[in-house]
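Structural prep section.
Before we set up the soaks we want a predicted structure of the protein with nicotinamide-adenine-dinucleotide in place, mainly to decide which crystallisation condition to try first. Input record follows.
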Amino acid sequence: MKYFVLDRGDEISVELSELFHRLAAENGLELDEKSPDIVVSIGGDGTMLHAFHTFIDQIPSIAFVGIHTGHLGFYADWKADEIPELIHMMSNQAKGETIEPRVVQYPLIHLEICKRSGNSSYICLNEFTLKGVDGTVVAQVDINDQMFEMFRGDGICVSTPSGSTAYNKSLGGAMLHPSIEALQVTEIASINNRVFRTLGSPLVLPKHHRCDIYSRKEQNLLLTIDHVNLPMDDLISVSCQVAERKISFVRYRPFPFWTRVRNAFLD
Ligand code: NAD
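Run finished without errors. Recording the tokens verbatim:
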């Protein structure tokens, strides 16, 4: 089995990374930074976002595992002191001495960004946001080629089901179980009065439905794709849809979504 480790870069994560490599070599796992079977992120949820974007071109052939160095993350279920156990399970899997672990797949969002200076496409694990830098954003929101609303406010967030517990939650969006292939559109401080009107509620769109956001004035915008910031002053439109590709997480033991939600927000 070929593996790669991406750590957060702080002292603890780097030390754990070194420990991981040492134990992995002792257990016959092969380090491969070009085409690993498993990518292990050591740090927090942000490190998993980073790992995801680093291997974005190989998503169909990679399974991810997360080790957290602080509190339990949404993408990181292994504790630092459980690294020997994790390596043992990976090594047993490689030798075929155990039943294949469960692999869960989570939906992603595909974006087509159209600018006056050219087009580009992106994939998000958590969410895409469009925000104003120096004033109110004016944007037309279309759903499946039909004009839906003219948005005025701070911005718009489009999240995946696994990202629904992140920024989307802070915006009052619903939490979606990642087995649901959908995307969620939430407003960031929309202006609503007798002149301007938006729906004011989060929207959940199923797979194959499309949400297009058109910039409706010359404006300095900040587009975010997970942890990545893209300042933009020539945006024409962004088209958002549930992606064909999914991310895979290898589960050597159960990590139920609702348990994570309860542990993170209630316990
Ligand atoms: P960061 O360090 O500011 O992390 C923000 C927090 O989001 C961390 O506590 C992290 O554990 C948590 N988080 C990330 N993904 C999550 C998920 N899927 N479910 C629940 N919590 C999650 O920034 P970062 O590490 O670069 O992460 C970028 C993410 O931060 C973005 O994808 C966005 O979701 C989140 N964010 C949240 C807010 C907000 O809630 N107001 C604002 C900006 C960004």
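Observations: The radius of gyration is 20 Å.
Flagged for discussion at group meeting.
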